Amino acid sequence: MKGNKKYILIFFLLLVLYVIAQVNQPKAFDWSATLQSNDKNPYGTYILHEELKQLFPNVTIQSHRLPIYNVLHNQYDENSAYILVAPSLNFGETDLNEMLNYVRNGNVVLLSAYGASKTLLDTLGVKVNNFNAVFDNDSTTINFVNPALKAAKNYSFNKSTIDGYFSALDKKDSTVVLGTRNDSMPNFVKRQYGEGFFLLHAAPLCFSNYFLLTHDNNDYTAKVLSYIPSNTTTLHWDDYNSLGRTGSDTPLRFFLSNTFLHWALMLAVVAIVLFVLFEMKRKQRIIPVIEPLRNTTLDFVETVSSVYFSQRDNKSIAQKKAQFWMEYIRQHYYIPTQKMDDAFVQQLHRKTAVPVTLIESIIHDIVRTEAQPKVTDDLLLQLSNSIDEFYQLSKK
Question: What domains, with CATH codes, occur in the chain?
Answer without folding.
Answer: 46-247 (3.40.50), 296-394 (no CATH)
